[in-house]
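User: Last request for today: this protein with 2-acetamido-2-deoxy-beta-D-glucopyranose, please.
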Amino acid sequence: MSLKTLVTSPISGFALFVLFLALLLRFSITSQRLFTTEELALFNGTDPGLPILIGILGSVFDVTKGKSHYGPGGGYHHFAGRDASRAFFSGNFTGDGLTDSLRGLSSTEVKSVVDWRDFYLRSYKPVGKLVGRYYDSRGNPTKYLKGVEAKAARGAQLLEKQKIEEAKQPQCSSKWSQDEGGEVWCDVGYPRLVKRPIEIALTGKMSKRCACFEESQLGQPGLEVYEGCDYNANRCKV
Ligand SMILES: *[C@@H]1O[C@H](CO)[C@@H](O)[C@H](O)[C@H]1NC(C)=O
Ligand SMILES: *[C@@H]1O[C@H](CO)[C@@H](O)[C@H](O)[C@H]1NC(C)=O
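Assistant: Here's the final one, the structure of the complex with 2-acetamido-2-deoxy-beta-D-glucopyranose:
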């Protein structure tokens, strides 16, 4: 029987189709390998014969191509062989800093961790899921993961709102150098410090930004002249 008749004969065509499905299924299963914490720990980069894996929000990625960063002695070696989701935000690699819990983080902080996961999705090969906080023993997302994703979406909305608000009042130009320190200036208008109200909802902390106001706006409440800077100056040392 020639290949052509094999493929076109209805029964072997069906068999090939089943074979194809089986391969597809096998592929999707192997690309969705489930890891326990202990299994993932073996891929910490110390054994050069094994790939280097990291977990973030329960998704496991093969980062072997970034060996210089993730291998022993690399700046990101702390992430190898574990899920240290929180440290992507905190940069704290000591003790409990290396946890996958995002407890107590604000919505934008949670969003920054989700953004990191999306970076790995774009840049590295996903190889499976870590069973635990983010995925259950069947590889399905847990309530915790859904909660994290919902919180990150709220963070994204708040940031978008802040961006729209702040676009209404142009930002100061700024520069900084070791010798001269910092400077802010406005090509049009005068630099003033203003509160960022949405920031409180975002991080629980009040922060300020520099925005440019025209002469007619300078009487608005809440505008702060830089310390040591003239009321009418359009450049201020900071
Ligand atoms: C790192 O991985 C090696 C094997 O690849 C394993 O023997 C070792 O226990 C792991 N280290 C930790 C801290 O899990
Ligand atoms: C890192 O996290 C640990 C445990 O939560 C904490 O004790 C330590 O103070 C943190 N370090 C920094 C630099 O935040």
